[in-house]
Amino acid sequence: MAAATELTVGQVATRSGVAISALHFYEARGLIRSHRTSGNQRRYGRDVLRRVAIIRIAQEVGISLAEIGAALESLPEGRTPTREDWNLLSTAWRDQLDQKIAQLKKLRDGLTDCIGCGCMSIDKCPLRNKEDRLSAQGPGARRLLVAR
Ligand code: FES
Question: Domain HTH merR-type, which positions (predicted)?
Answer without folding.
Answer: 6-74
